[in-house]
Amino acid sequence: xxxxxxxxxxxxxxxxxxxxxxxxxxxxxxxxxxxxxxxxxxxxxxxxxxxxxxxxxxxxxxxxxxxxxxxxxxxxxxxxxxxxxxxxxxxxxxxxxxxxxxxxxxxxxxxxxxxxxxxxxxxxxxxxxxxxxxxxxxxxxxxxxxxxxxxxxxxxxxxxxxxxxxxxxxxxxxxxxxxxxxxxxxxxxxxxxxxxxxxxxxxxxxxxxxxxxxxxxxxxxxxxxxxxxxxxxxxxxxxxxxxxxxxxxxxxxxxxxxxxxxxxxxxxxxxxxxxxxxxxxxxxxxxxxxxxxxxxxxxxxxxxxxxxxxxxxxxxxxxxxxxxxxxxxxx
Length: 331
Ligand SMILES: C[S@@+](CC[C@H](N)C(=O)[O-])C[C@H]1O[C@@H](n2cnc3c(N)ncnc32)[C@H](O)[C@@H]1O
Fold this sequence. Notes:
Elements: H1 11-15, E1 41-44, E2 47-50, H2 64-80, E3 96-100, H3 106-114, E4 119-124, E5 137-141, E6 155-161, H4 170-180, E7 181-192, H5 208-222, H6 232-240, E8 243-253, H7 261-289, H8 294-308, E9 316-325
Parallel strand pairs: 3-4, 3-6, 4-5, 6-7
Antiparallel strand pairs: 1-2, 7-9, 8-9
Helix pairs in contact: 2-7, 4-6, 5-7, 5-8, 7-8
Bound molecules: S-adenosylmethionine.
Keywords: Methyltransferase, Transferase
InterPro entries: SAM-dependent_MTases_sf (IPR029063)
Protein name: S-adenosyl-L-methionine-dependent methyltransferase
């Protein structure tokens, strides 16, 4: 596993008035703007959710605030992968690409721009994608847990990113992905873990951000979704038949507490993303899966956001990436 070293805390932050939040150090998130039947909605927790595939299918809202969050998270993901859109070693003339759970379609659009030779298809439970897209990119509303209708050996690359909250049948989904990947092609799984950690014990057991992660993991497990931890993704790929599997665990700091410049910027972006993210992920999971009172769930999500803004807390989550190759027939 790469990327599991401790992140060094910025000594300048330690020296300053530590009980206040980042706003006092010039890191103000408040003033920053984030940036038929398939359209049937339900409204819950003050948020809008698509209901076409059932209300318990996807835990995330599909309103404008969530779309902004997803787009910001896309930028975070690119920073995490050192400016890249994927880890798998694709040839420059890669052909058919599938993005499963494409969300706003931002990754698929970037891939279509980056690889003009490719036809990129993004599928999602909800039609959240824009109409004006590159000519080699298109979107369809579909549930990846249903039988796949694509030809066998068709895609050069199949990509799943942050879809764990909507998939219970990973074995079945990856069996389909294996069948539909061409020989020599790749499947990449890329998932942020739900748990928060600290290397210096600054995230105490009773810290609301830590509690949020524990409850999120519990809620996901209760509904048959597994929050990814070390080794999960590569194990899934291996069981499906992929070879040459490579996996990475990358720390994502919440807040600009790291000394390293790149991590500091990333931490700021994650803090901003978390302002929506804790609520987006938490509300449906806590109220439906754990039967928590909506007010209590809302209070916990808000407390988790506030906790990550405390300069004394050096919390991080882990983003896991694994990719594998479908072997050639003779291998
Ligand atoms: C957190 S968003 C991530 C979007 C995108 N992959 C990204 O990284 O920007 C998760 C998306 O996966 C979609 N999703 C979840 N389960 C799915 C399923 N079974 N089939 C298709 N899409 C799914 C959701 O509708 C949502 O738009």
